[in-house]
Each structure stands twice: as C-alpha cells, then as structure tokens.
C-alpha cells in the first residue's frame, strides 16, 4: 500500500492533486495552486446520435452507451467534497437547454477536486530542492486529456534526462 507517508525510494513523481499543490506551496513559500470542486451527473437518456452541447458553461455530452453526462460546476469554495444541491441547479439548467432531459432518470452524481496551478497550465519538472523528485500536477480541466503527453514528457525527463517540457508548463513558471 502506498500512502503519503510511504518511504520515497528512487525517482519519485509527485502527481498528488490538491494535497501536492498545497505541499509545494508550503515548501516554496508561495501559492502554486488551489483546488476547484467540480460536480457532474449522468442521465439515462439516449442521445448517442446527437451533438455535444456547450451552453453558458454547461456541458451536455451524449455517450455511446445510452447515457448523457451533464457537467459541471466550478467551485472555488465549498464546505462538502461530495455532490450537493448545486447539481440540482445544474440539472435544471440542462433541462432548460434540452427539455427532453426532464424525463430522464439521474443514474449517477459525482464530484471531485481538480488541482489548478496558478498559471492554469500543468506543472511539470523537477521538484525544487529535492533531487530525484519530479512534479506532474495542476492539470485542472485539461489534465485528463493531456495525461498521455504529460506521461511521455515526464518519462523522457526522468529516464533519459531529455527535457521536452513545453514553455509555460515548468514549475518555475508559477513562481
């Protein structure tokens, strides 16, 4: 089992979300990032042949499996990490945009805290003052889509020393 308190042996990549951004901010003595809570839901609504919609910050995304995702909130302050009443307002907004969704059953509600670097770009590179340690964090809204490229860039850096980190993505760019 790996925990935050596990011994760090060999080369270490800190891809540790909000907790890692908080640790890095504390270590560097300056804010490096924060968390943004996002909530979404899934409906039992077949629209696989319909386009995705983006209306006033609302995403309506039909899936091939016969479900439709509705997302998402972007909350910079929250008192509860889990799904809450803001999802009801999000669903109402979706129904206003697509009235056929009013008949759809809600099959899932979820939330998560997305790590957002102060620059809004992922933070990649060596961990300042910690030889053999590296950071891959702060991806916020693009983190999932960028994950394969981030993995490639970080693997090159760690395994061969080749630095292909894009401009603006370096840890020091956030300082």
Q: Order the strands across the largest sheet as they lie in space.
A: 3-4-5-2-6
Q: CA-to-CA gap between the ends?
A: 33 Å
Uncertain segments are none
Strand content: 25-35%
The outline comes out as: elongated
Number of distinct helices: 3
Q: Tell me about the biggest sheet?
A: 5 strands, antiparallel
For the residues shown, what is the average pLDDT?
91
Radius of gyration: 19 Å
Helical fraction equals 10-25%
Class by SSE composition: alpha+beta
The count of strands amounts to 8
Topology pattern, helix = H, strand = E? EHEEEEHEEEH
Description of the structure:
The protein has 175 residues and is an alpha+beta fold. It is built from three helices and eight strands. A hairpin with a 5-residue loop joins β4 (58-62) and β5. The longest helix has 18 residues, at 143-160. The model has no long low-confidence stretch (mean pLDDT 91).
Brief account:
The chain is of the alpha+beta class and about 180 residues long. It is built from three helices and eight strands, in the order βαββββαβββα.
Helix and strand arrangement:
Layout: E1 12-14, H1 17-28, E2 33-44, E3 53-55, E4 58-62, E5 68-71, H2 86-97, E6 105-117, E7 123-126, E8 133-137, H3 143-160
Parallel strand pairs: 1-8
Antiparallel strand pairs: 2-5, 2-6, 3-4, 4-5, 7-8
List key phrases describing it.
five-stranded antiparallel sheet, alpha+beta, elongated, about 180 residues
């Amino acid at each position: 089992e790996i925990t935050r308190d596990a011994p760090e042996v060999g080369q270490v990549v800190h891809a540790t979300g909000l907790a890692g951004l908080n640790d890095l901010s504390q270590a560097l003595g300056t804010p490096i990032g924060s968390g943004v809570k996002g909530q979404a839901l899934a409906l039992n609504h077949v629209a696989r042949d319909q386009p995705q919609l983006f209306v006033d910050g609302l995403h309506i995304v039909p899936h091939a499996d016969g479900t439709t995702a509705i997302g998402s909130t972007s909350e910079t302050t929250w008192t509860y990490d889990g799904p809450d009443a803001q999802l009801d307002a999000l669903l109402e907004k979706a129904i206003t945009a697509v009235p056929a969704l009013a008949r759809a059953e809600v099959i899932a509600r979820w939330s998560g805290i997305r790590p957002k670097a102060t620059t809004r770009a992922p933070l990649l590179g060596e961990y300042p003052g910690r030889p053999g340690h590296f950071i891959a964090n702060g991806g916020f809204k693009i983190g999932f889509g960028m994950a394969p490229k981030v993995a490639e860039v970080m693997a090159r850096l760690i395994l061969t020393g080749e630095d292909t980190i894009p401009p603006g993505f370096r840890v020091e760019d956030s300082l």
